[in-house]
Amino acid sequence: MALTLRTLCGLTTPEIARAFLVPEATMAQRIVRVKRKIRRAGIPHRLPPDHLLPDRIAGVLGVVYLLFNEGYAAAAGAELVRHDLCAEAIRLARPLAGLMPDDPEVLGLTALLLLQHSRRAARLDDAGDPVPLQDQDRARWHRDEIAEGLALLDAALRRRAPGPYQVQAAIAACHARAARAADTDWPQIAALYGRLAQLTPSPVVRLNRAVAVAMADGPAAGPALVDEVGDELAGYRMVPATRADLLRRQGRREEAAEEYRKALALTESDAERRFLTRRLAEVEG
Questions:
Q1: Which domain covers residue 242, as residue numbers?
Q2: 249 in any annotated domain
Q3: Are the C-beta atoms of 259 and 247 separated by less than 8 Å?
Q4: What φ, ψ does residue 118 adopt, rounded to 5°?
Q5: Do residues 211 and 189 lie in contact, with contact meaning Cβ atoms separated by under 8 Å?
Q6: Residue 47: predicted pLDDT
Q7: pTM higher than 0.85 for the full model?
Q8: 223 is a domain residue
Q9: How many CB atoms lie within 10 A of CB 222?
Q10: Cα separations in angstroms, 141 against 86, 114, 137, 138
Q11: Residue 230 CB neighbour total at 10 angstroms
Q12: Cα 48 vs. chain centroid, distance in angstroms?
């Protein structure tokens, strides 16, 4: 997956390292090793025969997913959203869904990308800074892409073989179906994140579940869940940023300010830095 992202998708080694939450040097070594293995073993670059395709689809879906993620929220640079990468990921996902209409995870991934990308016009303000989901103008969401994504998700769920991409698409669908932020079914989203954590025992998933639980049960329910993954995600900017937001919502301003400073020290995205700086000024003020 890393080599494909580098050679075919054009992502840089630092971008790929951030996607896998590993140091840049570690990722560079991995890519060198796999290139050396291909060269020494004489592995040909060719289309695999049909009987090998099922074994490879998980890697293909992973590449498309990570390509979209880098476009959806670029971890560094001047632009927070890279529409070209998001559009390219969807361009790759749609024909996969057409070629493999009976694979629920292929349908689920395509639905997820469409539902997430449908919000692009409302995700940034005029300065290019992020607009939190609850503050977005939902009239600017692309309803045609929402309808397409929901239809694909329904087709996937009818197969009764749930997987991680379908669960993530179901979470995105909860947001898409809410006419107002206040209508969002946060208990359902928290339950879906609990299921996702079973399917994909990732600390990032558990961090997102902490946010959903805090939205469903109140901000005081979140910090302990964030602390559970803090050590596993040391150096990941979203841990202090999430903790800061939960503390801010509880009125614990000094503690929130400290976490915002930690998040700022770890953030390489210009737009995210401006957003966090404004939040820091709010709690300090």
A1: 210-271
A2: yes
A3: yes
A4: -65, -20
A5: no
A6: 85
A7: yes
A8: yes
A9: 26
A10: 15, 11, 8, 5
A11: 16
A12: 29
Across-strand partners of 268?
Answer: 76
**10-residue mean pLDDT series, the chain (285 residues):** 91 91 92 94 87 89 96 83 94 94 96 98 92 96 98 97 97 97 97 96 95 96 92 92 96 96 93 94 93
Q: Which residue has the tokens 């998980």?
A: 58
CA distance 54 to 248: 47
How many distinct structural domains can be found in the chain?
1
Q: SS3 for 124?
A: strand
Residue 57 amino acid letter: I
Q: How far is CA 123 from CA 32, 114, 120, 159, 227, in A?
A: 37, 14, 5, 32, 28
Asked if residue 217 is part of any domain, the answer here is: yes
CA distances from 17 to 5, 13, 21, 86, 179 (A): 11, 6, 6, 19, 37
The span from the CA of 162 to the CA of 80, in Å, is 31
What are the CB-based long-range contacts (under 8 Å, 24+) for 249-258?
Answer: 249/214, 249/219, 250/219, 250/220, 253/283, 253/284, 254/283, 256/283, 257/283, 257/284
The answer to whether 106 and 96 have CB atoms below 8 angstroms apart is yes
Indicate the DSSP class of residue 47: P
In a domain, residue 84? The reply is no
Kindly write down the DSSP assignment for every residue of 220-278, as one continuous string: GGSHHHHHHHHTTTTT-THHHHHHHHHHHHTT-HHHHHHHHHHHHHH-EEHHHHHHHHH
Give the list of residues 6+ apart from residue 19 with CB closer than 8 angstroms, or none. 5, 11, 66, 69, 70
Phi/psi class of residue 178: alpha, beta or left (left: φ > 0; alpha: ψ in -120 to 50)?
Answer: beta
Tokens of 238: 């979203």
